[in-house]
Amino acid sequence: MSGAESEALGESERGAVSEAGRRVAVRALCEFTAREGDLDHRFTPAPSAREGIEGHARVQSRRGDGFEAEVALSADVAGLTVSGRADGVDPAANRLEEVKTHRGSLERMAANQRALHWAQAEAYGALLCAERGLESITLALVYLDIATGRETVLTREASAEELWARLEAHARAYVAWADQEAEHRAARDVALGALAFPHGDFRPGQRTLAEDAYRAAATGRCLLAEAPTGIGKTLGTLYPLLAAMPRQGLDRLAFLTMKTPGRRLALDALTDLGADRDSERLPLRVLELVARDKACEHPDFACHGESCPLAQGFYDRLPAARRDAVARGFWDRASLRALALEHGVCPYYLGQELARWADVLVGDVNHYFDDGALIHGLAQAEGARLGVLVDEAHNLVDRARGMYSAALDQRRLNRLRKGAPPALSRPLSRLSRRWQDLLREAEDHEWQALDEVPGGLLGALQQAVAAITDYLGEHPAGGDPALQEFLFEALAFARRAETFGEHSLCELERHGRGRARLAIRNLVPADFLAPRFRAARCAVLFSATLSPPGYHRDLLGLPDDTVIRSVPAPFVAEQLEVRLRRDVSTRLRDREASLSPIVAELAGQYRRRPGHYLAFFSSFAYLEAALARFREACPGIPVRAQRRGMDEAEREAFLAGFAPGETGIAFAVLGGAFAEGIDLPGERLVGAFVASLGLPPFDAYHAALEARLEERFGRGFDYAYRVPGMIKVVQAAGRVIRGPEDRGAVVLMDDRFARAENLALLPDWWQLAP
C-alpha cells in the first residue's frame, strides 16, 4: 500500500506540529540543562509521594503570617515560556524556599541531585525577581528529614541580574533543543504521512488487521484482534499506527512484548519500514528498552561514580551522547550499547534518558503496565498522546497478575534476623512474633485463604520498613544486601496491602516449621489495567489466541467500547490433519495407563511421515515418564527433551535441533518455552502432539480463584480452568502451520477434547479427521 493508498485507512488531515516544545516547566528545564557530575544510584531510602506532600505541608505550617506557599510563576525567557510553582516565598525576609524531603544523612545525597536542587531554586528566584521587580533575593534550600522532622537550611544571596543570566543560559540551551525537536517532529510527520507499505502487497488477512488497527487510532478506541499465525501481525499493526501518528497527533508509540523474540520481530519490522537504513532513513526514533541486568556493562561494580567508570561523569558526557543519539535515530540494544561506550556512559541509563525523545518504544509489557512503569510515567508527565500495541496479548492476564502480586517469606526474615545490626533487632523481632501469632491463630492447613491482610503483622511490617529505611539512610554502606532485598519485598507487600480488595486474594502457605509464606495474589488484573488503557489514546491488543474475547475483555479491564475482531485464517483445512484420540485420558489417575497409547501414537505418526515433531505434556514428571517409555519401545527413533531450568543457550541449542534434513521427536512441557513464540516453518516442524488439556491444577488456590471469578463474572470454571488451558493447547498446536506452503498434523490426546465446549475454542479453520 502506498502513502496515498494509506489515506483509505482513515482521515487525511495532518495534525499541526506541536508547540509544546516552546513551553517548559522549571523542573523539566533544569533536569535537561543543569544536571552535572556522576550518575549515582546507590540505594537511598526516599520518601514516598504521600510523605513528600505531607513534608511540604509540614514546612509551610511552620512559617509565619505572610508566608506564601505554592507561588505560581511564569515568564518568557529567550523565546521560551518557563513556568512552575515555587514552594514558598517570605516577602518580609525577601526569601524564596525550595523544599526537598529526604531520609537519613544529607551527606549521602548525590552531588548531581544537589546541583539540580540549586538550579531549580535559582530558576524560581529569577522568575520571582522579574515578576516583583526585586534587585536581589535570598535563596533557601530547605531539606526536611521525614523521620525526624528536622530541617536543614542552606542559603545563598543572589542578584536578580545573575539569576536571570543563568536562567537565560538554560533557556537558550533548551530552545536550541526544542527547535531541533520541532524540526524532527515536522519531518517525521511528513514522512509518516507518505509512508509506503514495504512489500508489494499485504498478506491474506494482513490488510484487514491493518485497517482495523488504523480505525482504532482514528477513533481513540481499543482493539482486541485475534489474528492467525503467519499473516504478519507485527508489521500489520505497526504500519497503520505509524501512518496514524501525524493524522491523529500521536506523540509516541509503545510496542509491548511478552518475550525478547517479540522485541526483535518489532525491530525487524521497523527496519523494513525504513527506520534503520543507510540511505533515505525514515526520520523515526526507535528505542529498544532492555532490563537493567541485561544492559549493565559492569554487574560487579556498584552503580555510582566512585565504583563504575560509566557512571563517573555521566551527566557531563550525557549532552554529547544525546546529540549523537538523535542524529542516528535507531537505538536497538546493540546500537545503544555501542553509542554509550563510545561516549563512556552507562547504556541502561542512556536508554532511560533517550526514552523521552523516542517516537517508538519497543519493550516488555511491564514498561507500561507495571507500578511506576517508565512509558506510562513519561506519558502522564508530558500529557503525551500514546498509541499502545500489545503483542501476544493472551499472556497479559497472567503477566499482569504477577505485576500486582507480592509475598513475604518467613525464611528470609529468619535469616535476616540472625545477621541484622543491633539497631534493627527490636523491630525485626516484633515482626517475627507477629508471624508466630498469625500461624497460631490460622488454621493448620498447608494452604489457606484469609479474609483480609493480617493487621497485626502488617503493622509490625510497616514499623520494620520504617526502621530499616532510617537505618539505611544513616549508614551509606548499607550492610548486608539481604537487608535491601527484604526492604524491597516488604515495600511491595505494603503497597499491595494498601490496595487490597476483591480483585486479590490473601493466602497463607505452610511448608514446615519456620517456612511460611504470606502472599497477596492478584486474581483480576482489570482493576489495575483499566486506568492504563484509559490513559492511552488507543490500544491494539493482538494474538493468535484471544477466544473467547469476553475472557480478555473482562480480566484485562478493556473499555466497554472496545472493538472485537477475528481475522479469518489464510490457511485451509487440507494443510493440517487434526486428529483426536478419544481413547486416551491424561487425568492424573490415568497417567500410567495413558503412556502406552501415547507412545504408540507418536511412533505411528512418525513412521507414516518421518520429520520433526513436538510432543507436549502437562508436567516434567509426565514428560519424563513418557520419554522413558518411548525410548524403551522405540530405540530407533531420535528423541530429545526439554529440561527444567534451561538457560538461554540451552534453549537456543534445543531449537537448533529442528534442522532441515534431520528428524526426531522433541518432548516439551505445555505452556513452557517451546509451546509458543517460536517459529519453525516448513520441514523444521511437521507435527505436534498434545497430551493434556492444559488445565491448571485442581488445588485449593484455583478453587478459590474459580469461586472469585464466578462471583464477579459468572464464568468461574471457564475463566479459571478451561480458557487458560485451551489457549495453551492452541498456542502449542499453532507451531505447526506457519505459512501458506506448510503441511502438518496435530494430534490431541484426551477424551475431553471431544466435548463441545472445548471444541468451540479450537480455530475455526481446523477440520477434525473422522
TrEMBL record:
Top-rank taxon: Bacteria
Keyword annotations of the record: 4Fe-4S, ATP-binding, DNA damage, DNA repair, DNA-binding, Helicase, Hydrolase, Iron, Iron-sulfur, Isomerase, Metal-binding, Nucleotide-binding
InterPro entries hit by this protein: ATP-dep_Helicase_C, DinG/Rad3-like, Helic_SF1/SF2_ATP-bd_DinG/Rad3, Helicase-like_DEXD_c2, P-loop_NTPase, PDDEXK-like_dom_sf, RAD3-like_helicase_DEAD
Keyword DNA repair: yes
Endpoints of the signal sequence: none
Record flagged with keyword Iron-sulfur: yes
One matching Pfam family: Helicase_C_2
Family annotation (Gene3D superfamilies): 3.90.320.10, P-loop containing nucleotide triphosphate hydrolases
Domain Helicase ATP-binding: 192-451
Family: Belongs to the helicase family. DinG subfamily.
Name of the protein this chain belongs to: Helicase ATP-binding domain-containing protein
Provenance organism: Halomonas halophila
Lineage: Bacteria, Pseudomonadati, Pseudomonadota, Gammaproteobacteria, Oceanospirillales
